[in-house]
Design a protein that fits this description.
One of its GO terms (cellular component) is membrane. With 94 residues, this protein is mainly alpha-helical. It is built from four helices and two strands; from the N terminus they run H-E-E-H-H-H. The protein is 52% helix and 9% strand. A two-stranded antiparallel sheet has the order 1-2. The longest helix has 18 residues. The chain starts with a helix and ends in a 7-residue tail after the last helix.
Length: 94
Amino acid sequence: MNKPNGRGWNLNNLQFPPAIHLCVTDMHTTKGCAEQFIQDVKDVAKELIKQPNKKSEGSAALYGLSQMIPDRSIVTELAHCYLNAYYDTPNNVS
């Protein structure tokens, strides 16, 4: 669910059940905000429908994959490995 986030929205992935979470604040009550959100979701849905075989990337891929693994203990280990690799800073050897 990374595409709407690129349009200025902050949607969080949820797993059980598969869903998204949107925190609504006072800013979201401004005129036209709800309509813009709905339009952005429609636009993203159209983009996704046009590319049914496109693979998920980033955190969306991690969440989708980890939800499918029945042994939850493996998910924790994989998440640690992913985050360690993501934040690893390689040494520059001159």
